[in-house]
Amino acid sequence: MPTPPKTPNLIPARPRIAVLLGDPGGIGPEMAVKLLARQRNLDAARVLLIADPVVLAAGERVAGVKLDPLRIDGLDDLRFEHGRPTLLQRDWMQGREPVLGESNEASGRASFEALELATAAVRRGQAEGIVFAPLNKHSLRLGGLVHEDELRYMQERFAVTGFVCEFNLTGSLWTSRVTSHIPLKDVASHITVEGVGDAVKIIASALRRAGVAQPRIAVTGLNPHAGDGGSIGMEEIEIIAPAIERLRAEGYDARGPFSPDTVFIGARRGDVDAVVSMYHDQGQIAMKLMGFEQGVTLHGGLPVPVATSASGSAFDIAGKGVAQIEGLQQAFDLCVRMASGGPVRTLSSAETAA
Ligand SMILES: NC(=O)C1=CN([C@@H]2O[C@H](COP(=O)(O)OP(=O)(O)OC[C@H]3O[C@@H](n4cnc5c(N)ncnc54)[C@H](O)[C@@H]3O)[C@@H](O)[C@H]2O)C=CC1
Ligand SMILES: NCC(=O)COP(=O)(O)O
User: Fold this and answer.
1) Does the beta carbon of 175 sit less than 6 angstroms from any atom of ligand 2?
2) Which of 130, 153, 165, 314 is most buried by its number of CB atoms within 10 A?
């Protein structure tokens, strides 16, 4: 009879994480290769790298590192060896080198197909999480994405009928948003009592899972100065304040509506655990200024953690070898912790370095 391990609690769960290179024309391949060149990441998880070989080779050249993957032919053949990523490669680019610094159909298709394969691995019960290096939404569209964004695409692939929402994390502060990747001119018509309620509830639930028993959630207004008593717009009075009242009656510690331009002053000093904004830039400009390098995006509402860096495809520095990977590292760490049932917060730089 085999001897049971003496210290089972110290054995890492090593969840299976699908890792994607992101947009071939950007810094994603370089970032993903740098991430997987860190031995501690291969010790923490069983990595399934899904990649086009030409894009991977380009990423290796820019990063100045060569990975030593275990190659498999398909998901039916999935296996892992400790300390090496498993590589499932597909010739999406048909042998063509990625064109750095631009969006095009080939890049979009390669990114999109890799995402499709990663969701297939999850659906087949062969991966407990997904981490992708930065995608580019314009390329994705050229490559066939018809959804609002990759989150809504994954929602459909995972047959999630409930509300999904992007979370952006920097340190211990979280944000969610009522609208996400839609034109600014359409935002006001998408702000509803139900939408505000959904965005607060989903982040409250995520924070509770992260160990915050009664999350304090600040809700922004839509208009300058949260409407200034109705003199600069009525959405606060007619929609957002009633939504907050309803949430408070249901037991949520929702506060506001706060002026969108100043809400992060209190949030930064720890007055709240999360900020729910009405649209992308209300939250992301502040979050990126507070911690662009460490920022993480988590795709809330999906059956498994799907995480990426807050930073994007950075076409302006593609191929230069200067891409930082702290955000992607944080995304990977968070995904591994969530997939193995551990704490959900992001770590400080000192903790990450330890
Ligand atoms: N994780 C993801 O998949 C994300 C994807 N995006 C996508 O990226 C595309 C471009 O977005 P932008 O707004 O131009 O923002 P961006 O984050 O790609 O670039 C903004 C600025 O930050 C710099 N930068 C970005 N990442 C860096 C890194 N890792 N190391 C050093 N410098 C870095 C860039 O050089 C640029 O000056 C869009 O299509 C957007 O949808 C944006 C954010 C996250
Ligand atoms: N799905 C990742 C993503 O869209 C991140 O970009 P952002 O819109 O949160 O800036």
Assistant:
1) no
2) 130
